[in-house]
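Minutes, project check-in

Agenda point 3 was the complex the collaborators sent over. CS summarized: two entities, 636 residues total, and the question is how they sit relative to each other. Sequences were read into the notes so everyone works from the same version.
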Amino acid sequence: MIVPSVYQVESVVHETEDIFTLTMVGKESGKGFCFLPGQFNMLYHFGYGEVAISITGNSSDDTVLTHSIRAVGNVTRAMQKMKVGDEIGVRGPFGTSWPIDRTGCDVLLVAGGCGLIPLFPALYALVENRKQFGNITLLYGARSPSDFIYQKQMEMLKGRGIQIELTVDKADETWKGRVGVVTPIIKECVRKPDNTLVMACGPDIMFRFAVRELLEMKVKKENVYLSLERHMQCGLGVCGRCQVGPYFVCKDGPVFSYAQLEQWLNIKEL
Amino acid sequence: MENRFLYCSKEQFERLLELIGEAGYRLLGPKLHNETIILDRIKTARDLPIGWMDEQDPGHYRVKRREDNAYFGYNLGPHSWKRYLFPSKEKFWSSKKENEHLEIIPEPLDSEKRAFIGVRACEIQGLRILDRVFKDIENYRVRRENTFIVAVNCTRCVNTCFCAAMGSGPKVTGGYDLLLTEVVDDRQHYFVLEVGSEAGFKICGSLTLREASDEEVKTAQAHIERIQEKRTVDNANIHDVLMKNYEHPRWDQVAKRCLNCANCTNVCPTCFCSDTQECVHLDGQAVDRWKGWESCFTQWHSYVAGVGSVRPSARSRYRQWLTHKFGTWWDQFGMSGCVGCGRCITWCPVGIDVTEELAAIERGEQ
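CS then shared the predicted structure for the full assembly.
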């Protein structure tokens, strides 16, 4: 867990202007990766450094490891230029996972921007056990229509009993759907507040408003799960960088229930 | 090994350090350097700051001559033993690129045998804390297992000490291989030695030390018990006090004084945050990954690409340090992160006193 293993890039897909997807296999193992939906890896790019990136793709498919990455810092911008055959270091998996074993309830997934990436393995796991859940809704907001990722995969999910609601911050002439942030739409998506499980990933500000909406509707805070992003280097709770109150996001999270975070999330600059 | 008090003369003490060296340990201990008592390699007991003491106050440190030739007549300098178990900079691992192939090269474990000479009670608590933080980190564990500890009971304190309040001192209770209490007055100069481990027993075996007399032991104990510390912390309640006071106005007030220089985290024996840097060789074909100390007082500490620093203000960074050290550390590791050594008070360039800040918050003052 201290030094990475070498993986080889098998495919590169540029999903949007700044989000790209790498699939890779272990150079020695020839295989993908065992992980739980919601967990993350530390990815190492030679000459640039290491970054914490959530694992996406289907966790029951161990032939390939899939990472979707937003080019936003020095390392990820360099990774965006990677080609098939390039080699990358992988350390992980780290952290907690989404509560996909909580069957018998409605599920609402709320994604803001690249927050969809760590939620996707949960979606795969939910459709595999589709009958064990009630309504499953994905509420996904992006900056503009061209910022939606995984369009093809979302079509597949629709065909397998997942309701999808999309919204954009800023529409263009092609867009006929909703405009605005995800929070006001949450109300429409929750039919049984006392029996709905929520999994959300997006910017901190989205959590704040989404949680307020959900709690007003009497969704239980124990049933609301959030995945946090913080500066991370070690993944082992020893570099000290990802602390949120008493938690190390890398090992106590990244997936937390709101019951755990309630006391902390509203403190500014924590 | 029953708890016995042995008499150790000055000459026997000097021989003891030789024996530790002969057993293959690298001797590390206090040394006078640039008018500061630091920790460094020592060759013999003569390298210790014999006859020196320190004077410490908020933002103030001076060494002074003593009237005797005590080996351990001072308290603490800016260095803590953390530096040998969790170095301020070390190569973590490396990588190479050859014909477009990536190779990862782990660093070998550091199994050098080291002897820490003159470890104070608060420092032993510091090691206990680091043992918990780094319990799953192999290179820490290996270094720790290869460390021989010669502890020393303090027989004086400086104005910045508050180990009694933190329950870590001044008397050493466990965690050592050998423990010394130095007695020096007009009439006599000797040590009372206690053995704390099999390794310690083996090393002092050839010294043929006699049992210390009741009088000698009593004098030594009295030297420890005479310590009266000036500062205190309400250790039993401070966690709960801090958890309720994240928006206390005192944070704004202290932020006006705090320079965010990170001196306090650098001298702290338990601050464990680190930063790993990618250092590329000039030919571009190899990389060393260097890990070093990092401080929660920097903006980079909490920087998230695309978001910025989670703690952009001095207020939030000071609050993170203090609430972690005295508060959330309990939630994370079941103990306080503070040992009461007072270094952060002494080495703060503007003399911010954590005990005063905590008390002000507890009293509800601005």
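Noted in discussion: Chain A has two domains: 5-94, 106-227.
Follow-up: revisit at the next meeting once the mutant set is ready.
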